[in-house]
Amino acid sequence: MKQIERFTHIEGVAVYNVTNGVQDETPSAVDVSLSIPEITFEATEVPMMGSVSVVDQTRVQALELEITIESDNPNAIRLFGPGVRTWRCAWVESILQPSGLTDVLGFYLDVSGYCTSYPEGSKELGSQATGSAKLSLLSMKKTDSNNTIYYDIDRTKGLLKINGIDYRENINKLL
């Protein structure tokens, strides 16, 4: 008999501005949609009886976060501005365990980077104006309310840790 796997349901998503390491008390945007980037390692073509693609697990490709929000929300506009910005994205998941019990777990995505597109969005009669902002990330760290670190990537510090494995440890020791 197949075991029932856990089922998760997103209960809410909010995005906060962070200034000098301090998170705003009030979220700048709530009930947003996040498209969290995949962590993809760089590949290099190596000539070897033709060519072979070798994955370099010490470097990741560009990280771009997309946030879909109400484009006319005056608080949301504060999220986007010139220069490097820091944000905390937070969401809550209800988790139905195989036992039938339900748990609630908070997740946090702390990111810093540049806003590369502003969410002006479309205006349609009778509809809420929404738009998507794209953020080019310098750092990205995912944790949960139990203080579990899923990954911690910081391009400016040469940090690349995923599920407790430091992929750049040997390189950073030599630098």
Shape: globular
Assembly state of the chains shown: single chain
On the 0 to 100 scale, the average pLDDT is: 85
Largest sheet: 11 strands, antiparallel
How many structurally independent domains? Answer: 1
Distance between the termini: 53 Å
Total helices: the number is: 2
N-to-C order of helices and strands: EEEEEEEHEEEEEEH
Strand % is over 45%
Radius of gyration: 19 Å
Low-confidence stretches: none
Give me the count of strands: 13
Helix fraction by DSSP (H/I, runs of at least 4): under 10%
SS content category: mainly beta
Keywords for this entry:
175 residues, mainly beta, eleven-stranded antiparallel β-sheet, two-stranded antiparallel ribbon, 2 helices, 6% helix, 57% strand
Summarize the topology.
Elements: E1 7-19, E2 22-23, E3 29-30, E4 33-35, E5 41-47, E6 51-60, E7 64-70, H1 74-77, E8 85-96, E9 102-117, E10 130-144, E11 149-154, E12 159-162, E13 165-166, H2 169-174
Antiparallel strand pairs: 1-2, 1-3, 1-8, 4-7, 5-6, 7-10, 8-9, 9-10, 10-11, 11-12, 12-13
